[in-house]
Every structure is written in C-alpha cells, then in structure tokens.
Amino acid sequence: MTQQQDAIDSHIGFQRYLLNWFKTPIGQYALEFERTLIDQHLNHLFGYYLVQMGRVSETSLLATSRIKNHILVDETLTSADQVAERLVLANLMAQPFAASSIDLILLPHTLESTLDPYRFIRYVDELIRADGHLVITGFNPLSCLVLRQRMGQDKAQWRAAHIIKMERLVDWLRLLGYDVLVKEYSLSRCFESKVNQKFQPIMRYVSRMGQPLTKLGLSMSQSYIVVAKKQQWVPLRPHKASQLSEWVSGSKPVVAQSRHTKASSR
Q: Where does the record place the Methyltransferase type domain (predicted)?
C-alpha cells in the first residue's frame, strides 16, 4: 500500500475511538468543555453550507449554528445511526464537493486521526470559498489529560494520534493565507469527578500559575479551538512596461543629479 493510500485510510481511527471515549466519565467532561467552545464560536459564523468532517459525538456539534444546511461527512456510519445533519458517506480525502463551495468546515479532532495533518488542511483549503471559515478542535499535547491517557490503558491510541500544538497549527494556517480569528483553550480536568473534587484547590492553583505560560503558547489546558478565515487574494495590477523600464535587465540606466551637484558644476 502506498503512502498516499495509507494517508487516505487513516482518517477514521482516532475519531472512531473518541466516539466511545467521550462516553466515559472523564471523556464526558472533556466533551462538555469542548462543546462550550464550539457553541460559542459557531453561533457567530454565517453562510449557506456547514460541513463537519468526521464524527466524535453521538449528539450534534452543530446545533447552535445559524447556518441552515448542515452536512456530516463520515465513512464509518451505517443506516442504523441517527444523525441530525445530512449525512454523506465518503472518504474524508475524497469528498464529493466542488472546489470553493463550502462556507464553513468543522474539523473535530480530524487532524489527529490522519498520517499527514498538513496535507489534509491543504485538501480542505481547496473546498472552502474565499472569506469562508475553518474551525478546528484538538487536544493540547502539554495537558495533564493527554499525558495521563498516554500512560493509561488506551495508551496505544493516544500515542498513535497526531496531537498538534495550537501554535504549530496557527503557523500552518497563516502559511496558507488564513486570518486566525480565535485561539482559545478550554478548561482543564485531569481526573474523574470524585478524584477531581479532592484536588480542586490544587488544580485552581495550577491554573493560576499557568496563565503566564498560556500567553507563551505553553498552556496546560486539555483542548483548544482555532477559528480561521480564508482570505481572498487580489493580485496587484501590473504596471505598463514603459513604467518599469528602469527595472528591466539590459535597459539604459538613468542618472539623476542632485541640485547640489548642479550648483557645484557651475
């Protein structure tokens, strides 16, 4: 199997795992914090078509969006699954959408499920129209939650996932010409309810101490959301060739004398 085919076939693993993990006690808290971020920012974005790529929750993540047409693209759902959105069964790297046809795309942990996250962003970029938006959620690799999971029972799943730092993702988007509008971390919860209640004073202290680190891109919060707007590139209007004669190789140079030079030559 080629590397390209591996990349195409790898977009279902971690998202499929999260669909079940988000039902666990600690997973429910993580999804609750993340859903708060999604609801807050989707409510302020508009357009005609909103596409979510990959499913991580049995309940809709798009309920608060004001966009009328909601589409869920997934390659593992069956006819027995009940979804609120219009469902498209397709490979995430071979979707039936025309270029520059989608107003808003949501990637809920989608990049963490692929072998080549940057390549997938470039593919998604071709589908978004100019002035459209891209919303991405992901886990923070520096969070206590991720570190805990990578040492737990399901460590193989978490170590195989491509968990990306927010600042690295922001650099990719800016390189592709996006204007990053939102960079926000969620709250943090490392343990289940009973254990967390016991250590709440310590966690509040750690949260306060970590605020300066957040400004430096070193947050220990468990997940984040990034909202980016695709810029419409307008090429510069070229000047006439006669106006650029001074810059054309082989043209006769023009020497301009200053007033001081003219005065001294008299």
A: 77-136
The torsion angles phi and psi of 63, rounded to 5 degrees, stand at -60, -35
Helix or strand (DSSP H, E) at 126: helix 117-127
Angstrom distance (rounded) from CA 118 to CA 172:
7
The residue to which tokens 């795309």 are assigned: 105
Task: For domain 3-238, give its CATH number from 3.30.70.141, 3.40.50.150, 3.40.50.300, 3.40.800.20.
Answer: 3.40.50.150
Copy the structure tokens of residue 233: 């590139």
- The whole-angstrom separation of Cα 105 and Cα 135 is 6
Residue 207 Cα to chain centre, angstroms: 24
Reported as a single tens digit per residue, the pLDDT across 105-127 is 999 999 998 888 999 999 999 99
50-102 residue pLDDT tens: 999 999 998 999 999 999 999 999 987 766 677 889 999 888 888 899 999 99
Rounded distance, CA 162 to CA 144, Å? 17
Helices (DSSP H) in 210-248: which residue ranges? 211-215
Residue of 199, 198, 218 whose CA lies nearest to 209: 218
Residue with tokens 């960079």: 183
pTM: 0.76
Residues 223, 256: Cα–Cα separation, whole Å: 61
